[in-house]
Amino acid sequence: MASSFTEHRARAAGGRPWPRTARTLERAFLYVAAIAVAVAIMAPFLWLVISSVASGADLLARPLRWLPTHASFDRYVKIFTSMQPGESAFTFRHALVNSLKVAAGSVGISMAVGVFAAYAFARLRFVGRNALALLFLTTYMLPPIALVIPLYLIMGHLHLRDTVSGLVLIYCSFITPYVIWIMKGYFEAIPVELEEAAMVDGASRIGSLFRVILPLSAPGLVTTFIFSLLLAWDEFLYALIMTSSVNAKTIPVAIAEFSGAHMIDYGMMAAGGVLAALPPVLITLILQKQIISGLTAGAVKG
Amino acid sequence: MTSSAPGAPRRLRTGQTRTLLLASALILPSIMIIFGVIIYPLLRALYLSLFEYSLTKVSHPFIGLGNYAHILSTPAFWASIERTLYFTLVSTAAELVLGLLVALLLNQEFYGRGVLRALIIIPWALPTMVNGMMWRWIDNADYGALNALLTQLHLIPEYRPWLSTPMSAMNMVIIADVWKMTPLVTLLILASLQTIPRSLYESSSLDGAGRWRTFWSIVFPYLKPTILIVLVVRTMEAFKVFDIIFMMTRGGPANGTLTVAYYTYVEAFSNLQLGSGAALSYLIALFILGFAMIYVRLLQTGDN
Question: Is A136 on the interface with B (CB under 8 A)?
């Protein structure tokens, strides 16, 4: 399918194939490069996974043993069972739960609110439409550092610091504009005629939105949902400033604090990291096609 | 637009009014969120930036543009800008070059290409803080995998504290960032590589153009819009770098990785100078919005 240089070069020389040694060399180079890329991608992550199951002695050995002599899933078990407040495993579990709550809440609200706004921007013609759409895009691009100081004061007044709901509210500030911007693109790609046909048949605009547009844009909704979850799961600065206890601390904050401690249990840190990485990595691998098309949709014209 | 029949001005007007009403109803909830958590805080920050607002003091005198003037005359601020520019330039350039090379590789046909394309998304999917933690552990001075690997390959005689000198720490942070973000660049470039019509390559090889010339005369012009967008987006992202710095170096050693976002964080939440922190954050936001405008322009010219 993809146009390969090699083939065309072969054809270029008047249909004669290249001298065989040159071609073999080139194939060899291709495979060496491919293997190098694969190793560069996998080795760091694999080392994190190995570190999470290797025994402490293995991790601190010099010279380092790449394959641990003792491996166990004890640290994972500990994270899921620890009842000891103050223990890192205990903090990790609560942070994972908080991260899930914050992601679910903020993505839920943002999708519910943003999808309708996106529809209005895509389909309705009204005064100030373009200016407003641009405003939403710019707000999405604002760096968190620009908002964190006033939000810190506001959340203090509202007594929402160190609460999951406070974080949910703040995360809507970047997820809602994101949902609007992406879903607007998906809605615009659906032919207007389909909707008009439904309205001729007596459906109202809202009715046709629910019965025609939303089902047709299901793949877009899924992609947007996933990307929003990843955004929420990844956020760090707001969570760092707003949270201070296991009440609301999210997983990025737990990892940061843990690695700042004086005596670091590297294995436990790695286990926490693997658990934090697992949901996004698995989702991305399973829904690869949608993710890649979502990633490239905005940036590539083709 | 559908409810208003042509030649019926009254119905047209009610149609327009109805559309406006419907649009307002659909957009209002989003507006409320944006106003509450973005517009109002932004105005509040602007107001705050005009005061000497220290969390440790009771009175917060109005000083006009004093915070801005002070920031712009502080050498430490300009040093942080310099570091941010270094980070931005080096990481964006590396991501672009590596991303392009890997995309060209993945555009060839070879056994296992599908697997490699699936694997390449993993670094991108890794949460930023996990990525930073992973590299901090790899770069560890006493037990790190990087030291182990390089000594076992006899490339360095003994373990080195990679994160303990300013320049080396900055480069290690860049490596971690490049590892995570190159896949995104690769996927974007690969997608636009695949839109190049096959016939273009063929006519170019019939002209007897070499591979190098084919790349610059056929492939590169096709990739240019994507490369431009990648450049702008990555520059915007890199300029606000904070998370990975917090994770790997906390701005140290000797402020060697203190970028402008981190500088702002320290000013506001360690020095507790919220007024001058707000002024700093405004300066960053202005810079980023400038880039955002370029980005929007690029997207719009791409559409036409």
Answer: yes
Task: Look at residue A15 and tell me whether its pLDDT is greater than 50.
Answer: no
Question: Which residues from B are below 8 Å from A1, CB to CB?
Answer: 194
Q: What is the ipTM of this complex?
A: 0.88
pLDDT, tens digit (0-9, with 9 covering 90-100), for B234-275: 888 888 999 999 999 999 899 999 999 999 999 999 999 999
Interface test with B, best of A139, A149, A204, A242 (most B CBs within 10 A): A149
The structural domains of chain B, with segments of one domain joined by +, span 79-303
Under 8 Å CB pairs connecting chains A and B tally to 309
Residue of B nearest to A15 (CA): B206
Q: Which fold has domain B79-303?
A: MetI-like fold (1.10.3720)
Q: Three-state DSSP class for B193?
A: helix
Domains of chain A as residue ranges with CATH: 5-72 (no CATH), 76-297 (1.10.3720.10)
Please tell me the distance in Å from B31's CA to the nearest CA on chain A. Answer: 9
Its sign, for the CA torsion A29, A31, A34, A35, is negative
Residues B28-85: pLDDT tens digits?
999 999 999 999 999 999 999 999 988 888 888 899 899 999 999 999 999 999 999 9
Question: Global pTM?
Answer: 0.89
Nearest-by-Cβ selection for A302 from B138, B148, B195: B195
Cβ of B118 and A4 within 8 Å? no
The full DSSP string for chain A is -PPPHHHHHHHHTTTPPPPHHHHHHHHHHHHHHHHHHHHHHHHHHHHHHHHHHB-HHHHT-SSPPSS-SSB-SHHHHHHHH---TTSHHHHHHHHHHHHHHHHHHHHHHHHHHHHHHHHHHHH---TTHHHHHHHHHHHHHS-GGGTHHHHHHHHHHTT-TT-HHHHHHHHHHHHHHHHHHHHHHHHHTS-HHHHHHHHHTT--HHHHIIIIIHHHTHHHHHHHHHHHHHHHHH--HHHHHH--STTT--HHHHHHHHHHSSS--HHHHHHHHHHHHHHHHHHHHHTHHHHHHHHHHTT---
